[in-house]
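Title: Request for sanity check on Response regulator prediction

Description:
We are preparing a figure and want to confirm that the structure record we downloaded matches what your pipeline produces today. Could someone re-run it with the sequence below and paste the raw structure tokens into this thread? We only need the token string, no images.
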Amino acid sequence: MRLLLVEDDQDLADWLTQSLIGCGFQVDWAEDGRSAESRIAAEDYDLILLDLGLPLMTGAELLARLKAGGNDTPLLVMTARDSLAQRVALLRDGADDFMGKPFAIEELEVRIHALIRRSHGRARGVYACGPLSFDHAAQRFTLLGDALLLSPREHAVLRLLIQKPGDPLSKQQIIDRLVSMESDMNPEAVEVIVHRLRKRLAHAPVQIVTLRGIGYLLEHDEGTA
């Protein structure tokens, strides 16, 4: 599971990062609101840990912008100003949970797992690219109306691509998102998986396109529909 930690205190960020890695999470760090917003736009996270007192863009401002943009990534606010009024305001503004500083890493770990489980329970969407669709709840691909049987690696890579059809993913982004399930994932392995997926999609008007120097994207080839 991949987390984004948004915290401007480097000592606290270092402690949290190492502690959460020790709990089995992947952790990216952003030290201000603007860099966090850029990371969130470019990457998919299972949960965001957000401090309120950030430079450049406050945590409250970032929270408001994320919710206004329709981002539904679970968000846990970390705050030293733990008043009832503020907690109510944070929940109304779209935060999923909060923790008052200081806190124990054991409690934080439990809250993170609970929020991610809850968010997975909400994820019932169906993604589509032309005749290819992915039912998130059933974790099943359908191509031209028939079930598409894939290996676990093929399934994982195609799931990443169909969640944002038309948007490129670099090999490194694919590796970063799958490394928790495949410790030996590397650029050559990604190439092999993409090659196999192309064979499976060969007779349908949907294809994986290589953008040289950028990555891969999934697109509907309407000219062959």
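Thanks, this matches our download. DSSP finds eight helices and eleven strands in the chain.
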